[in-house]
Design goal:
single chain, mainly beta, Pnp Oxidase, Chain A, binds flavin mononucleotide
Length: about 210
Amino acid sequence: MLYPLPAVLVGCRDEEGRDNLMTAAWAGTVCSDPVMVSVSIRKERYSHDIIERTGEFTLSLTTKKLAFATDFCGVKSGRDTDKFSLMKLTPLESARISAPGVSESPVVLECRVKQILRLGSHDMFVAEVVNVSVDEALLDENGKLTLERADLIAYSHGEYFTLGDKIGKFGYSVRKKRGRAAEAKGSAAAKGVRRRSGSGKPVKKYKN
Ligand SMILES: Cc1cc2nc3c(=O)[nH]c(=O)nc-3n(C[C@H](O)[C@H](O)[C@H](O)COP(=O)(O)O)c2cc1C
């Protein structure tokens, strides 16, 4: 009952070069230095063993346009389905790992597994984010990431939702009016992300 959650597409590639995607809602940010995320995956999933063997996966954020594919990738298995091709998704070659992301996604995190916690029904893969790429269409003229334009979706109690109205921002409850001009600062370049064009082609590499 801990909702809403992101519904991300977890990308992996096996040793023969076959790509797969699975949907995960049990994913989260767990550390900022080093930047780390987690994703909990049932042992039965086809993706589980591939990620365990290769130690790599990507997390692609999902949008309204990707909602159908997100659901499909969460109900069909890569054992007998080529989800990239059936959903007409384009694999995005990663800069630092072999596992592909999804070109149609606005933000892709490249992750290297550091620990696997055997929790019970699910194994939690704790991984370092070794690269981030963003669709450059989401960068404004100052290089600031405008994620609010991405139409991200959330998963809550078995259903998908677009995000609602903006009702505040970090720290607004204590911010003095005078300090607000400084909010515009903070560009994607400063945060060490890789830009890529809408086609998925990287256009510039920042910090890797
Ligand atoms: C919205 C949604 C969220 C899901 N979250 C998870 C999850 O966090 N962990 C998990 O193991 N399976 C999750 N699943 C189920 C897998 O995505 C599903 O079993 C998928 O078919 C596995 O694909 P694979 O066999 O190709 O790896 C989710 C499914 C949906 C639709």
